[in-house]
Amino acid sequence: MKKHIAVLTSGGDAPGMNACIRAMVLNAERAGHKISGYLRGFNGVLNDDRICLTAQRMHNLIQQGGTILHSARCESFCQPQVRQQAANNLKSAGIDTLIVMGGDGSFKGAHALKAHWDGQIIGIPGTIDNDIDQTDATIGYYTAIETAVNSIDKVRDTADAFDRVFVVEVMGRHAGFLGMSAALASASDFVLVPELFECAQTSLQQIKQQIMQRQQSRGPVSYVIVLAENLWPEGVIGLCQNVTEATGLEAKPVTLGHVQRGGSPVSQDRILAVKSGTFAIELVNTDISDIMIGIQNDTLVTVPLEKTWQKQKTLGKDARKTALHLMNQRYID
């Protein structure tokens, strides 16, 4: 049966979203489905702001960062009457399947829409933080790691030149996947992520002890700390001040910020995006709805949307122990 599919990207953008859109459009056309794209997330559904997506529009899209559908948050979508308006617009447009690409906030909005609309709802996780439960990886995560590592490598060059301390702030306020992966891949000296953070005083003491030990054994050295955003009480500036006061060494802050969201997606994100988008179209014409497409042990799976936010996804014990061994940090079980 031929269907009318609609896709939107919501919340923070992530490299690989365009690759996923491309995969959906190409597979939808092959199956004879019509596919539209709502602009700026759920705002597009509320304003009936949509475009027709065709294979011709998908040329050279797989390597582009960002999202051609644009993205935005929609605070008003929390209101039942607003969701009802969105449902009315979906019905008027003849939409059979709505595919939502984003994070847990986007999934909560999609799940809440179910009470007002009886169409098929499919979620695809797209967030650089990789903090969506029930999936091993999210679209954009691998590219964000690569971006952070490249930046930290450059910071290390100037840190070595001046024997300086640098604190690099990365995204990932609730889960430490991005911070930990970037720290390990760049051979950073210390990492501060939610799963390894006990208290500021303890962490500062560990940092001071490490720096002193290395100075005693090697003389002047560079030192790079990776910090997850919004983790240190006074932020990255505060941590730099604390380190300077504790060690007598000037600590410089580097905030990567939204640069981590941009750039051409790396191969892992492109492949994950293509697989997820293709699988989403395969689910059209089935009774499967109100689910997220995840990947577990290199296998695509469907997970009820509600399960994706019921449990906070955090770093496993292996990653924490790796930090302990390589960075000589205190292990928190």
What is the gist of this entry?
The chain is of the alpha/beta class.
Q: Roughly what is the average pLDDT, rounded to an integer?
A: 94
Structure summary, number of beta strands: 11
Question: Largest sheet, described in full?
Answer: 7 strands, mixed
CATH topology of the largest domain: Rossmann fold
Radius of gyration: 22 Å
Uncertain ranges: none
- Percentage of residues assigned to helices: 40-55%
Tell me the number of structural domains.
2
Globally, the shape reads elongated
The helix/strand order is EHEHEHEHEHEHEHEHEHEEHH
Total helical elements: 11
Strand order of the largest sheet: 3-2-1-4-5-10-11
Strand content: 15-25%
> Which class best fits the helix and strand makeup?
alpha/beta
CATH architectural type of the largest domain: 3-Layer(aba) Sandwich
Under the CATH scheme, which class of the largest domain? Alpha Beta
Distance between the termini: 52 Å
Q: In words, what does this structure look like?
A:
The chain folds into two domains: 183 residues, Rossmann fold (3-Layer(aba) Sandwich); 120 residues, Phosphofructokinase domain (Rossmann fold, 3-Layer(aba) Sandwich), CATH 3.40.50.460. The protein is 41% helix and 17% strand. It has eleven helices and eleven strands. Strand 1, helix 1 and strand 2 form a beta-alpha-beta unit. It is elongated, with a radius of gyration of 22 Å.
Give keywords.
Rossmann fold, alpha/beta, 41% helix, 333 residues, four-stranded parallel beta sheet, 2 domains
